[in-house]
Amino acid sequence: MFKVLVSDPISDLGIQQLMDASDVTVDKKTGLSEDELIAIIGEYDGLLVRSQTTVTEKIIAAGTNLKVIGRAGVGVDNIKLEAATQRGVVVINAPDGNTITTCEHAFAMMMALARHIPQAYAKTISGVWDKKTFLGVELRGKTLGVLGMGRIGSEVAKRAKAFGMDILAYDPFLTADRAEKLEVKLASVDDIVRGADFITVHTPLTPETRHMISRPQFEVMKKGMRIINCARGGVIDEMALVEAIDSGIVAGAAFDVFEKEPPEADHPFLSHPKIIVTPHLGASTVEAQENVAIDVSEQVLHILRNEPFINAVNIPPVAPSVMNKLQPYFTLGEKLGSFVTQITDGAIREIHVEYAGDLSDVDTQPLTRYIVKGVLSRHFAGDVNIVNSMHLAKTRDVNVVVTKASKTKGFTNLITVTLKAEHDEERLVAGTLLQGYGERIVQVNKFPVDIAPEGHQIVISHNDKPGIIGLVGTLLGQNDVNIASMQVGRKIVGGAAIMLLTADKAVPQDVLVKLAGLPEINTAEEITLL
Asked: Does 280 qualify as catalytic in the annotation?
């Protein structure tokens, strides 16, 4: 008989399947202190929490029988993941339970924005009957730009279609085939910025998405467009948005999230007559609270019964013999995935991983998860881990193919990662571990190289002509960029070539533009591997 402790307020409906299970006993004890939890947690196999309970290292250490911690929600910052992992305790959450709720909130914000509902309500209850000030617009016939076509963005697009809106959709993993299935038009960020009447954001906050809508984007927008953010604060430059509204470019905005939460009392959003704000209510419905509890309860039951489960957010257990052989390659695999995705344009269709040499005779699934995590992490921020990376790839219609070869030329082991994107674009990177040298990238596309995958790297595509290396070195020196290492690869003399440089610091965008403008250089881009 398994015992599960529910330490935060959760409705009986949310945990009904646990309560109905013949092999599970459920105890509900809320409002416990850390010491009180420590005193009793040893008798429980599972712990179910919301956000009130902080699951500390001491609590986890005292949970000698603990097998699973379930978070009825998305965020797990109240659970010490590392401590749970070290103890072999699976931590799960419920990323899908609030999809519809957040989607509906975003749509409600868009409708309120189109018809000035909060402003009209405030003025009416103040005793002023004002029909002229609040002239709104219809959604029908308008173009909605959706930035991020994951679960929530796709649901918003579906509802917008029902309202007669035209949909422009951007997502780094959205292919033309999937866009057609969703009945949306595949677009770039620039297409959306220039063509949308409304823009709604449904992307995580990553280095790539931070301030993806800022002054340069506002300057080219349709006059009178409107913008909604119910995803993550920071994706839209808040101060630039205020300027765009005050200048008449943007007609209004609706925000449920902020760069800093709660915002300061003097934040301009809070007093602006054309900006609607709510206090991060995206997941705040009765149904969402019940759904996340139901989802987590189901997975807790699977884990206790040693059945397949999903939505784990920490590292799953790996057989010691497999771990010993694969562990040295985990970091390399993730770096290879990150490197190749940064040199790939277009929506990714397939991740092809080939293991050659000694790695071909073991179960490489854990290593493949690290590689896929590296590919996806540039777009999903902290939402990707080695447990959910394969699931996320599947939900974005990204096919993961693994092949093996017993022999490899010149290396004991070789990992080759090839990304296939739309329009038949294909990018490849291969790496290995060399005795005494550690991690090495030994091939980029068709070119042999030898460089450590670390720090800030510049990848330059150029023609193999005399003086190119000197031109590059001189320009970087003039711009205070120090070169730590350099490698040049080519197939034939005088043909296409590649140059890889490791810099001591991040390379400014204007320097990359200058590099790309040098004679015989085709492209110059920075790859970050930290």
From this structure: yes
Topology, domain 2-96+287-304: Rossmann fold (3.40.50)
CA distance 351 to 27: 45
pTM of the model: 0.76
CB of 419 within 8 A of CB of 350?
Answer: yes
| Identified catalytic residue from 50, 71, 116, 232 | 232
The DSSP string of 229-252 is E-S-TTSB-HHHHHHHHHTTSEEE
Please tell me which residue in 87, 115, 194, 280 is annotated as part of the active site: 280
In the CATH hierarchy, which fold is given to the domain comprising 319-445?
A: 60s Ribosomal Protein L30; Chain: A; (3.30.1330)
pLDDT band at 316 (very low <50, low <70, confident <90, very high): low
Query: Residues 261, 264, 307, 423: which is the catalytic one?
Result: 261
Residue 232 known to be catalytic: yes
Residue with token string 């301030």? 211
The pLDDT-based confidence of 477 (bands split at 50, 70, 90) is very high
Domain ranges of the chain: 2-96+287-304, 99-277, 319-445, 456-530
114's tokens: 């189109």
- Per CATH, the homologous superfamily of domain 456-530 is ACT domain (3.30.70.260)
Assign domain 99-277 to a CATH class: alpha beta
Residue 94: which region, alpha, beta or left (left: phi > 0; alpha: psi -120 to 50)? beta
Task: Say how many C-beta atoms besides its own lie within 10 A of residue 500's C-beta.
Answer: 21
pLDDT digits (tens, 9 = 90+) for 62-108: 999 999 999 998 878 899 988 887 787 889 999 888 899 999 999 99
Are 354 and 181 within 8 A, CB to CB?
no
Residue 354 CA: distances (Å) to CA of 132, 360, 515: 66, 9, 33
pLDDT for 96? 85
Instruction: Compute the distance between CA of residue 229 and CA of residue 254 in angstroms, rounded to an integer.
Output: 6
| Residue 104 known to be catalytic | no
**CB 508 within 8 Å of CB 479:** yes
Element at 522 (helix H, strand E):
strand 521-529
40: phi then psi, degrees, rounded to nearest 5 = -115, -15
